[in-house]
Amino acid sequence: MSFRLRINDRLFEGEPRAGQCLRTYLRERAWFGVKKGCDAGDCGACTVHVDGEPVHSCLYPAVRARGRAVTTVEGLASPEGELHPVQQKFLDAQGYQCGFCTAGFLMTTAALEAERGTAHDDGKLDDLPRAFKGNICRCTGYRAVEDAVRGVKHTERPCAGEAVGRSVGAPAGPQVVTGTARYTFDVEVPGLLHMKLLRSPHPHARIVAIDTSAALRVPGVHAVLTHEDAPPTLYSSARHEHPTEDPDDTRVLDSVVRYVGQRVAAVVAESEQAAEEGCRRIEVTYEELPYVTDAEAAMLPGAPALHGDKGPECRIARAADNVAGEVHGEIGDVERGFAEADVVYEETFRTQRVQHASLETHGCVAYFEPKDDSGAGTGERLTVRSSTQTPFLTRRALCALFGLPEDEVRVVAGRVGGGFGGKQEMLTEDIVTLAALKLRRPVKLEYTRAEQFYGATTRHPFVIGIKVGARADGTLTAVQMRVVSDTGAYGNHGPAVMFHSVGESFAVYRAPHKKVDAYSVYTNVVPAGAFRGYGLGQVTFAVESVMDELARRLGMDPLAFREKNIIGPGEAMHSPIGEEEDLHVASYGLDQCLSVVRRAIAEDRSAEEAPEGWLVGQGTAMAMIATGPPGGHYADARVSLLADGTYDIAVGTAEFGNGTTTVHQQITAEALHTTEDRIAIRQSDTDVVRHDTGAFGSAGTVVAGKAVLLAAESLAERLRTLAARHTGVARHRCVLGAEAVDCAGRLVTLKELYEAGHALGAAEELAADGHWGGSPRSVAFNAQWFRVAVDPGTGEMRILRSVHAADAGKVMNPMQCRGQVEGGVAQALGATLFETVRVDGRGEVTTAAFRRYRLPQYADVPRTEVHFTETSDAIGPLGAKSMSESPFNPVAPAFANALRDATGIRFTELPVTRDRVWLAMERHVR
């Protein structure tokens, strides 16, 4: 009997492979709305309906679907294209950011809605924590999901020229809710080969020999790549505009492995199964070497040097001492400052490794396409489709690594399923390109969820020793820090994160005497990398904790203590690592942020909700961040009038839930006095514009958005000039409208104007370019306040109220900006309360699955009240500032300060898990 099933009301035949799950069966038939997030039933991104019942298709054997009706997110809408009511609700509320998890939430909600009023209705839709216990969202903080389920509408359709400051829906919204948005692997590539990686079982070893003969005999295996096939070039996997910011300490495949999980060999085969079998058949002979997994121990004399063989050309600060980078500086004389203080407080704080946990894992597919399709000449060129935040920098790195001219390589990012800094790396594109160039065949590598934990990067763990002093009146006299950041086995982002961590964290407070000694240190552990906040969150945890403690020891209100010592409008920012001349307080909302907190404290009644006998406390923290990275962050944009009278934006920035696509559309609509539905966007493709540094450093609005604004404003001027020339009406009397130019009462449609431009030989006036170099830069401010309750008998903690104040300058899109804040707070709460990448004594990751690495779920995240200040920045586009990273930074210290208020105990290590809290209270009582 043949295997048959119905998928979205269409009959399909074809026996599944032995052991095949329903998820891969569906995706192989181009139902790409079904996503891979975990392959373990933990995240819910693969949820589909089987005979109306929601199931995790990654766990559901495809063979069980015989004779059944399967519905994916693509099948929810009616055959006529009318959205399912749940899809419409998620679109109206914008109940998503990157959208990778959205199909899972939609399918779960739709199934529960169908049960309403039936015998199967068990009330889950009235208990969303229970309803969504099998669904994870890393981006939103879940409030937007709840609003979608409840039918709350947030999206607006503003009039022409009034888009900025309104909650305009994301352009890709309809595609996200229907499952037709195309992420990295949502494409069909003929002749595709699959890659799997053999990884090191040792923390430090030299490869003596590799026998690949048995692997090559596996049916379907085309190639096995080892260090002997890799270029000898050293590089960094980190992507920055200036590659010299990072040490060159990495090879595509190395003869020395430096952590458990480092790639040793790559097998390329007709199927993933054959590639996996090929990996199992490779025989490697290792010479094990001494290893070190503690950053302080790694700097001691006699410690094994991970990169001791590398010279100064690699830009490692002290390779023999495992110091990838270091910075030392002093303003004034801290010893004198402490001598002048009436109260001195000193403590050591520790933060842990955290995984980005974007639901779309790292991966890419490389294939060849004709050059003439792109106008680049004859022959073939390599196209790499990658889940990356930096397509242009990745192309540059690939060309340098493999000696290719840039016109022979195209890098494109589809919609990216979450980033958080983790995709500011080149982790898969290099090895896949090596294979594609060798075989001249399309090659795909997609990380498993386990590989994300031991083969990608983490947030840097920090140890911060900090000492502060103040006079009796609360005036700070001195601040001193010693910071040790564990960069893991490779220095990608290590020195830069270390340097950034001791910048704004110092500069936001006035003190005449400041000193820092900071180190980025190699250890035989999975490498760390870029992560939301880029080091500021770790050091802010220490700084804001000690400021709170110092205020308490002085008998001062912690808010009043901060207000006395923070920088004010227009003040210079002083850090012992040196002043950044292009960084300015171009708008100031920190006072308003603290006022929001003060009002919340005054009006709060949430303590009344605490269970009887629980301890209750409240705490605040604040943070400052530069609105863009130093040293230049570049963006080119082009805005064009099209033949049909609509507009096109070409910009390089990737979209991964950061919302920049929407903001770019709004900026253009404002400048051209049109509506957002008349603007198309092409993005994140090296064919689209000349250059874009990338979607990191919170640069999507303040850098790429500025380039878009300049291009759109220039085009508006050109179109008015062209309309005047076409009609003979004075230019100042030509007014751009949504679909036409009003030339003193004569309406010239944009389509007519396009035709006139060509007829007049002025086609070049129908487009305009914009460029922004990321300098000068401003600063953004955030403040977080919690009231918490703690059970002294068990250590259980509850957040009674969460308030966040954000100085984002002119808020371009309140709905999206609120979502960024809520998502940042939720992610930071995970890092504060339970998330930790655990490693054993050999540096091996032991939490390589979501069920062992606890992510915040719906039930864990409180609803945060978000307040925006009334400011307008003198530098950012139309007064805007960045707000993607900064909400994360004050969350952990605000929570720790609330715990201190409730329990009398200063918690100095993250995460503050329930067992740690209980043990600390037990010791405190004794």
Could you walk me through the main structural features you see in this protein, from its secondary elements to its overall organization?
- The protein is of the alpha+beta class and 926 residues long.
- Helix content is 27%, strand content 21%.
- It has 24 helices and 31 strands.
- Strands 8-10-6-17-14-15-16 form a seven-stranded mixed β-sheet. The protein has a five-stranded mixed β-sheet with strand order 2-1-5-3-4, with helices on one face. A five-stranded mixed β-sheet has the order 12-20-19-18-13, sandwiched between helices.
- Strand 29 and strand 30 form a beta hairpin.
- Helix 2 crosses helix 3.
- The longest helix is centred in the C-terminal third of the chain and has 29 residues, at 699-727.
- It is globular, with a radius of gyration of 28 Å.
- The relative contact order is 0.11.
Shape annotation = globular
Q: In which range does the helix fraction lie?
A: 25-40%
Total number of β-strand segments?
31
Structural class designation: alpha+beta
- Largest beta sheet: what is the strand line-up? 8-10-6-17-14-15-16
Terminus-to-terminus distance:
72 Å
User: What is the tally of helical segments?
Assistant: 24
The proportion of strand residues reads: 15-25%
User: What summary fits the major beta sheet?
Assistant: 7 strands, mixed
- Global Rg: 28 Å
Key attributes of the depicted protein:
globular; single chain; five-stranded mixed sheet; alpha+beta; 926 residues
Concise account of the structure shown:
With 926 residues, this protein is of the alpha+beta class. It contains 24 helices and 31 strands.
